[in-house]
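Write out this protein's structure.
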Amino acid sequence: MSDSCKDRDLLAIEPGIFTGGGFESQQMAAGTDGAISATTFSSPSADFVAASIQPGMVLCIYAAVPAEGRCYEIVSVDSATALTVSVLRAEHDGNAIAPPAGTSLKYQINTFAPQVSAAAATLHEKLRQIAEAEGISEADFTDSAQLGRAIALGALAAVFTARAANATDADANWVKAEHYRRQHVAATAAIRLAQDTDGDGVAERTRTLGNVSLRRA
C-alpha cells in the first residue's frame, strides 16, 4: 500500500501545498544552481542519493520566492546530481513531459511522506480488520486508484489541519481541512474489496470499508 500514493498524487489535487511552505512538510533538498534541459534536472551542488530523493516526489523551482514557483514530478533519480522530471502526467507510467528549460534555478524538494504514511496505515488497519473477519490473506490486497485517492485525501486533511492550528474557525486552512476530511471519508466508504474465490475472474463477494470501525489491538 505504500506505493498507492506519493507526493505527486497530492500535487495533482492540491498543488499549492508544495509552494506554500509550512512546518508540516519536510525539506529533502534545496539549492540555487538548478538547470532543466528537456526532462533532465541537474544541480552540481546536490546529492540527491544521499538526500533520499525518490521517484514520485515533487520538485519546485522558483525565481524569487517558493510561493511563485512551478512544480514538477520526479520520475527517476539518475545520479547524485541529476533527476528525470516531468510536467505532472495524467498516468503514473506515462511518458515524461519536458518542462520549460532554464538555468541558475532556485529549487526545493519537500515531501509529505509522514502524512501519507499515517493515512495509509489507517486504511491498512481497516483492511486488516476485514481480513480477520473474512479469513482473507492481507497478502491478497493490491494497490488501486481507489486506495491511492483515499490515502491522498486523508493526507491532505492532515496537512491543512496542521496549518490551521491556533487559527479561527473561518480560516481557509480549516475550510480545506474539513473539505478533505469529508472527501476522505466518502472515498474510504466507496472502496470495495472484491473476492474472486474460485479464480474465474468474477468476484463472488464484495465488502465495503464504510461499515468497518477502528478498534485498539
